[in-house]
């Protein structure tokens, strides 16, 4: 029985169906295991530039975009403040932790500053979500964009807490067990571990009773309310979960660059997260990481190519925009949708070919 049509999924579905729903089908695909092995051995086959500037940055941006994918894909809520939540967490790490701005930073050790930043950023995202769930459609997009724009201008003009337009520099990164966790290889594995944790957390929650109820709210909120579900509570809880994921990405971001400034939370950067999620695919947790990889590759190498051609390097966004329009035009589900269309086409050709041999 469908969640939208019937009672609670724990009582309406057979045990076998629930077990299958909570399984990890991706583990049955050899390509997934191949990608996992490549990611694990990446430090042995890539230099420091590719390891951090390409792959670690992809994992960080993909994690932030994953929070947007969760809200849009499973909750039907497009939020443009996910990078703002990540930036808020990054600022809190810098404010509560140690940095070169001793008149701003409180000097807490990283193991105290980081949990505090995660808690405050999650609360910030939950509060923003509580405001956003009172609207629908384009109004949700506008109110979350307004929150992002307000935070950008606030950080840009506030010198006492956020350091104004110069931001907070030389933020301390974790050191324990005799390891500098910001050095290239340890930091790459930290980002990989956090990204994997967030990916599997989203996979699990999407198949758990809460995730199924959230998808029911997305598809038919009136029916879910009639069944006794608190629609707004589910939506706010989804924002809280997504905020925690975005906050983890923000902590990694400030550790990566060792600084945070208003430019990191600008309106343009907020929209970049939307582009990343849509280009990769908004309906699958792996989509944001695919989109992030494409975005980082274009941002890194298209910028250099344009500069070598004597053009303005900022025009790389034009290339990203054209790619975005092309992908959306050909597929409503980004690169994942294009891949699945290609696979279906290839399977159809194979069947026709096999049928021809059979009749011969």
Automatic annotation (TrEMBL):
Molecular function per GO: ATP binding; branched-chain amino acid transmembrane transporter activity
Topological category with respect to the lipid bilayer: Multi-pass membrane protein
This protein's UniProt keywords: ATP-binding, Cell membrane, Membrane, Nucleotide-binding, Transmembrane, Transmembrane helix
CDD domains in the cross-refs: TM_PBP1_LivM_like
Record's subcellular location: Cell membrane
InterPro entries, A to Z: ABC_transp_permease (IPR001851), LivM-like (IPR043428)
Subcellular location, principal: membrane
Residue stretches spanning the membrane: 31-50, 55-74, 110-131, 137-155, 185-205, 236-257, 264-283, 289-307, 319-339
Cellular compartments per GO CC: plasma membrane
Protein's name according to its UniProt entry: ABC transporter ATP-binding protein
Source species of the chain: Bradyrhizobium icense
